[in-house]
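As the next step, I selected for study one protein, both as residues and as discrete backbone shape codes, as given directly below:
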Amino acid sequence: MYVITDKLLIGTIDDARNPPPNIGTLLLVAEEFTVDPPSWVEYNRIPIKEFSEANPVTLIKAIDWLETRVPEGKTLVCCRAGMGRSVSVGMAYLCCAEGMAYDDVLNLVMTCRPGAMPLPNLREAIEQVRLLRRAA
């Protein structure tokens, strides 16, 4: 498990299956897995296919869900390896909900999660999400 901010963590499927007691919210973005989280964890699953390009519609769903939960406590975003999909959703949240610049978020994530591999076209998808959110 990798701490990105004091309230946003990135993890693997094993972390999703066994979240520590300080995690209050879990978002699973792995299409190929489901989990049965402990009763204290608020849980959602927004499936993203492994190695797919970033999809603005899916990112909006994830950001909207995270936006009301991350400020309330520790939130864990997980996929199979905690390197691609979960990293990308976390980055999209930080860019779109927290207003951080993409390059700053990329530097933060690469520092906190060595080996992170954001989804193809993530920067462009985040820009589309920002435009759609402004228009709403």
In short: The chain has one domain: 2-135. DSSP finds five helices and five strands in the chain.
